[in-house]
Every structure is written in structure tokens, then in C-alpha cells.
Amino acid sequence: MLTAVDHVQLAAPPGTEDALRAYYVDVLGMTEIPKPPVLAARGGCWFAAGAVQLHLGTEQDFRPAKKAHPGLRVRDIEAYADRLAAHGAQVTWDDNLPGHRRFYSEDPVGNRLEFLEPLRGRD
């Protein structure tokens, strides 16, 4: 039986690890976690915030995910959106999910990310 999502993997072009670190650590507030040595040799980087893990792997023929995306739950979504905007990230609000406030943004290589927070009284 499935019990949880362990991680989500996104792709990135080779050589973009520094830009990814700056975004996922400095902008999103995640922590970089070490990759096992055999996997670290392939490039990319991994990040965590609480139980959430995002793995960024390098791909030679990289194309950003424009539709597929992780949905990342946040607290105080207005302040979080302000944080991203203050770092120059685009914030696009979307009111089409009942019971939630949410917005979309993109990481530095163009992958789509969704940030959402249930409205009060929901979880």
C-alpha cells in the first residue's frame, strides 16, 4: 500500500546547480540535503523542508515542466508570495481550486511550481 510521497523529482540542465541552490535555499527557504556519492556524480541537487523533498536531476535535452508540477503546501501564503516576489520570482495567483488560496511560479530553469494553502477550517 502507498503511504506517502517520498519525493518529487524535477529536471534541470547540466551546470545549473548554483542557480538551483540560490533559488531553492535562499528564495524558497529549503535546505540542501546531500545526495549519495554514486548519485552525486550525476549532477543535480536535492532539497528538503520538513517532510517535503524535491530532487533536481540534470538532463542533457532538458525542457522545463510547464504543466506537470509539484503542489507545495505553505503557511501564510500571502507572506510567502511576497517573499518570492521580493526575490524577483513571478507570482501568478489562481482562484480555481475551491477551498484553497494558491499561486504558481517557476524555478530558475522554468519548471512550474504550485504553492497552496487551505482556507481556514480546512486541511
Structure in words:
With 123 residues, the protein is an alpha/beta fold. The chain has a single domain, classed as 2,3-Dihydroxybiphenyl 1,2-Dioxygenase, domain 1 (Roll). It contains three helices and eight strands. A four-stranded mixed β-sheet has the order 1-4-3-2, with helices on one face. It is globular. The model has no long low-confidence stretch (mean pLDDT 94).
Tell me how many strands there are.
8
Uncertain segments of ≥5 residues (pLDDT<50)? none
> What quaternary form is this?
single chain
Instruction: Calculate the mean pLDDT score and round it.
Output: 94
Report the end-to-end length measured between terminal Cα atoms. Answer: 23 Å
Structural class: alpha/beta
Question: What fraction of residues sit in β-strands?
Answer: 25-35%
Major sheet: order of its strands?
A: 1-4-3-2
How many domains would you count in the coordinates?
1
CATH secondary-structure class? Alpha Beta
- Helical element count? 3
- The CATH topology is given as 2,3-Dihydroxybiphenyl 1,2-Dioxygenase, domain 1
Shape: globular
Helix content: 10-25%
The radius of gyration over CA amounts to 15 Å
